[in-house]
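Good morning N.,

You mentioned wanting to compare the apo and holo forms, so I went ahead and generated the holo version with MTE. This is what I fed in:
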Amino acid sequence: MENYEGRPSVPSWAVALAGFVSGAVALGVAQLGAGVINDAAFPVVAVGNAMVDVSPPPLKDFAIRTFGENDKVVVIAGLFVVLALVSAAFGLLARRRLWYGMAGLGAFGVVGLLAVLTRPGASALDVLPTLLGVAAGAWTLSLLMRRMLVVAAPVESDSAEPAPAESGSPDSLSTEPGDASVVEPVVEPERPVVMRAGREPRTFDRRALLVGATGGLVAAGLGGVAGRVLAGRKQVDAARMSMALPRPAVPAQPLPAGADLRIKGLSPFVTPNADFYRVDTAFILPQVDPETWKLKIHGMVDKPLEISFAELVKRPMHEADITLTCVSNEVGGPYAGNARWLGVRMADVLREAGVQPGADMLLSTSADGWTCGTPLDVVMDGREALFAIAMNGETLSVEHGFPVRQVVPGLYGYVSATKWVVDIKVTRFDKDVAYWTPKGWSAKGPIKTQSRIDVPSAGASVPAGRTIVAGVAWAQHRGIDAVEVRVDQGGWTVARLAAVPNIDTWRQWSAEVDLPAGAHTIEVRATDAAGDTQTASLAPPAPDGATGYHSITIDAA
Ligand SMILES: Nc1nc2c(c(=O)[nH]1)N[C@H]1C(S)=C(S)[C@@H](COP(=O)(O)O)O[C@H]1N2
Ligand SMILES: [Mo]
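and this is what came out, ligand included:
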């Protein structure tokens, strides 16, 4: 092991930085380990909790009075500051002898271990994050202490006199302007020999240290963030799994017989959660803990509200079958799904807040900052517009908005179906703008009547003769009254419609057509309960939903 004793030419800031980075790496690795093993095994939090537990009641009261709910956060933040300073000091110790610094890290590791192991419910595995952290910190310290010293240019004599720099040598970085300022008095272009290991003279290399330190900090940061993400995910998973669903005050009626025609290849009436389409802007799924979740209702209201999850689920729960559709769905596309939702009526909550006259928009915001503008009149008109907590009898999955999302029958998802919803501002369309509006999508998005052929699948080969054609059609909150199909631009055939529980779901349909051998085009169109038949004219999804007939080409043989 190298001996740094009596080599004061390595500047103090350099060894302090090495110590600080080593401490950061130790914590980053410990946090990552805790994320994998057990969040409670992160030593800093364990020490913070232990400190709060053993602190005398007057001190605790003072902390709570001064910092409120943030008292633990303040303790942890204080610990981080102390650790930063102490680990810098470990760097200074390591300049005397490397193992002094390592021993310092180890001593702090022991404190962490004691705190981790005395936590209620601690297991032997919980020592790993701290041990790995200390090992990584010690390794980083030794690496950086070594790295900041490079072999000096060859010297003629064995003297400790400054050696002339060899210009152009790969490690002559210290001849850069400014570099020389950090070492002991030196006249450029000479570089001082600050130490020797064995026969090789060595010199302080600022660049090498800074590169190493930056690498260490980046690794520490990545480890810390990854650990937090993993821990948050596990906590939310645990909360999801342990959640019991409240009974609906207004249950949905059992599905009518024949809502599902059970034709092979036809979308089932109820879309299984695992098959439900997913559309959102989230790069990383928001992990929202129901314990800390709150829904804020504010803006043009008489009484702003803040509702916790526990308070939300105490309210009367409605159960409703609603089909969700995405405005981005191409004609015939897959972005539609039907589920039985459980939730609190948005209108009930809004009435409690007291919506003021003149408001016409709900600007909802998700935990990850996505926004959505929903027409207020639609939400208030008596339909089952819900703050939903469950889907098909299961707690919402994280990807579908756990713990709470909006579902509004009749509106495309981008203007209604906010997942991970945390904030509702009652406002006006002429005052506020939601996420997709400036990007070329209409501010309002009522769902257009659409129909889709599921069977046969596009491009399929079928036996010539009588052939079953089947699919789904939707016109949420108006209802589907008729579906027709035609072959090769011939006359329209009226399809048989499946039963539906309400006007907010899609409707299965089927028809029989006669197909002579050869290639055929089959088209479908639907008519809603207002008597409007979908238009034949093709339009792309932007700005307010695709139009046109779904058309498939198949081969009969
Ligand atoms: N937070 C958030 N909620 C969101 C979105 C989003 O990007 N972020 N996308 C919306 C869109 S465009 C649609 S179509 C529906 C889709 O809901 P699903 O993913 O549960 O099917 O969610 C809506 N809710
Ligand atoms: Mo969407």
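Residues 1-6, 156-190 have pLDDT under 50 and may be disordered.

Happy to go through it together on a call whenever suits you.

Best,
F.
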